[in-house]
Design goal:
about 0% strand, mainly alpha, about 150 residues, Arc Repressor Mutant, subunit A
Length: about 150
């Protein structure tokens, strides 16, 4: 995943695409920050692809929130810039699962854990986050898991 981002960064430099380049540099900086934090914690290995996915998902969420705030503040120019950055970041995320596949993944996780009450929600969400980071909206998935476990 790092190689993909690095290659895209180099291509953006060659193409002199400044908007894309700045977003890709932000991604690289966030990954390097996580590497540095891991090293200070005594972990010599660089961050895994799963952690890179988590960083990208977090960056998308931050930009969605910023875009919403800018729209509310009637700053459409800044909102459009945030939305453009989201498009670039999402290029490196796996495709989102559809509603049916999300429901199937939730059902599979519930059956694997043997979850039968709301107390088991953490186990189910843990499996989903391990397998489907970047592919599922966990806010919506959490509500579906809760509904499935409470019988609603």
């Amino acid at each position: 995943m790092r190689n993909e981002i690095s290659a895209a960064l180099k291509q953006a430099m060659k193409d002199k695409n400044t908007d894309r380049l700045s977003t890709l540099r932000l991604i690289s900086a966030a990954i390097k920050d996580r590497d540095i934090a891991a090293r200070s914690d005594g972990n010599d290995a660089s961050v895994s692809d799963e952690e890179v996915l988590a960083i990208l998902v977090k960056m998308v969420k931050q930009r969605q929130e910023s875009a919403r705030v800018y729209e509310e503040g009637n700053r459409l120019d800044l909102s459009e810039r945030e939305l453009a950055e989201i498009v670039i970041i999402e290029e490196f995320l796996p495709r989102q699962l559809g509603e049916e596949k999300t429901d199937a993944a939730i059902a599979q996780a519930i059956s694997e854990t043997g979850a039968d009450s709301i107390r088991d929600m953490g186990k189910v969400m843990g499996i989903l986050k391990t397998r489907y980071t970047g592919q599922i909206d966990f806010g919506a998935a959490g509500a579906k898991v809760k509904a499935a476990l409470t019988g609603n």
